[in-house]
Every structure is written in C-alpha cells, then in structure tokens.
Amino acid sequence: MVQILDFEEPIFNLEQKIDELTGMSKGGQVNITDEIRRLEKKVFRMQKDIFSRLTPWQKTQLARHPYRPYTLDYIKHMITDFTELHGDRYFADGHSVVGGPAKFEEKPIMIIGHQKGRDTKEKVFRNFGMSQPEGYRKALRLMKTADKFNIPIITLLDTPGAYPGIEAEERGQAEAIARNLKEMSDLSVPVIAVITGEGGSGGALALGIGNRILMLEHSIYSVISPEGCAAILWKDPEKSQDAAHALNLTSADLLRLEVIDEIVKEPPGGAHRDHKLMASILRRVLRRHLKELEQKTPDELIKDRHEKFQNMGSFTEA
Questions:
Q1: What is the pLDDT of residue 313?
Q2: CA–CA separation, 177 and 170 (whole Å)
Q3: Which of 75, 264, 284, 302 could covalently link to 79 via disulfide, CB atoms 3.0 to 4.6 Å apart?
Q4: Is residue 94 part of a domain?
Q5: For 221-262, how does the pLDDT look when each residue is reduced to its tens digit (9 = 90+)?
Q6: 153 with 207: CB under 8 angstroms?
Q7: What backbone torsions phi and psi does residue 194 show, to the nearest 5 degrees?
Q8: How many structural domains comprise the chain?
Q9: How many whole angstroms separate alpha carbon 172 and alpha carbon 4?
Q10: Closest CA relative to residue 32, chosen from 20, 14, 43
C-alpha cells in the first residue's frame, strides 16, 4: 500500500490523472500526448514548489517515510562485491546494523549502516532500526578490520535512536556507544558518515564520527526526537511541530551550524520516489570526498576528525 504524506497529496492526485490519460492514449482512444506533457511539467513545478518550503516537521515526516531507501538499498544500487559480516563476537548479531567489505567503483571499502524494516516481520527482525549494544559492537569490529587493512569506511545513518530497553542497558548500551565514539575518532583511514534518513541521538552518532559528514536534503539529525522533546519541555505531544522547529534538525540548519559538511540533493519528490537515482547522486558525492580524503596521511585524518568535533559548539562573545 502506497503511503502518501498530506503535503504530497496534490502531486499524487495529479500523477494519478497522468496515469489515467496515459492509459487512454495507449489504448488508442484519443491522442492526448500534449496534455500529458503539460501535466508532467505541472507535476515537476509543483514538486519543486512544495519541497522547497517544507517545514521542519514535514521534513521529519519525509525522513521517516517507510519507502525511503535504507542501507541495503544503497548497497544494491551503489556498491559491488558486498559480503555481509555478522556478529559482535560477544553476544549476538544485532540485525538493525548491517555491514561488510565491498567495492565502491572498483576500490575496496567497508560499508556499515542502520537497516529498518518495511513490513511488520522485517521491522521486528530489524528492531525498527533501533540498535542494541551488539549492533554497535559489530560495527566497531568491522571498522577496526577496515583500519587494519587500510580500507576507507562509509557509514549510513538512519535510526530513531539506540534501543532503550532494559536488556540493552544490562548489556552495556551506553558503554558500547561511548566506545564507538572513542574508537572512531582515532581510526587512521578515511571515514565518511551520511545521514540518509532519521539521525536519532547517540544511536546515530555511534556511527557518525567521520572526516566528512554528509546529509541528504530531506533527512534530519537531532539529539532527541520532536515527540520526545515536546514531552519533556511542554508535557504535550501536540507540540511536536514546535519542537521540530526549535531543534534545528534539518540539513539546512545543520549546515549553517557547521555540524555537517554538505547537503546531498534528493530526486524530485524525495529519495523514496527513486532509489536508483538517489544512489547515483550519492555515489557522485562520495566519489569526490573519498578522492579528497585519500590524499591525507593517517595522522592528518585523525587530526582532522578530532578538530572537526572539538570545534562544534564553540563560540565567541561579542
């Protein structure tokens, strides 16, 4: 079943009309090619207009869209020779994080990312994209392997946050996240982190300590969800839209605050409309950043990463 967000409805209705007219034209009932082309141009203009003025809450809805491409979708369209590796060598696999060695344009890389589910069975299997400690420990194992063999690392962030259950806390959730932050900061290979959907708090940051931090145009990145913020500050879930605005969680906000390095444009209507095109756009951006980072020595990469995060939040008083 297609899920249409409220602000997408005018576009969807017009596209349905185009499909109907196209069917009539193919059936030989009438030649309406010019009318179809006119409507297609109108759809393009409408998409451009609507998506250029989305509110932070609408961006949040788009970042969570169930048909948005996830890590395995990007691997399918952007990566070759991928071999998924499993297990943290301590407790379990951690199905909400996937990763392994692969080739990016014939060069070896290590790719790691969050994986959500689309149907109920897969959502439960992937724990709705919320990783337990074993997921982060698996990711760290893969990153240390990449470091050992001098392979660049690409991480794809898309999670509501780390799993907050009792069993996760019993197995050291906070320690696992903190260790990833520490170890990632000292990796001697290029690390590029990409927020592809929902960058939720420490659950996303545990894969997000990179030399370059990229963010898809309609993704979000925040210390807390708008719903959680509204519940804490206003004790009112109806204030989620206000919270989304206050959190400065959009790609434009975070580029202005110098938290990220670049915004990756999405296809017209959002990444969920065309997975293959989105992967192609991201591939071009990754190619450029990898080429730049490969010119740096291991010491320069580590220094670059340290300075990037140390400088975040710094300010001078007027």
A1: 78
A2: 14
A3: 75
A4: yes
A5: 999 999 999 999 999 888 999 999 999 999 999 999 999 999
A6: no
A7: -125, 120
A8: 2
A9: 39
A10: 20
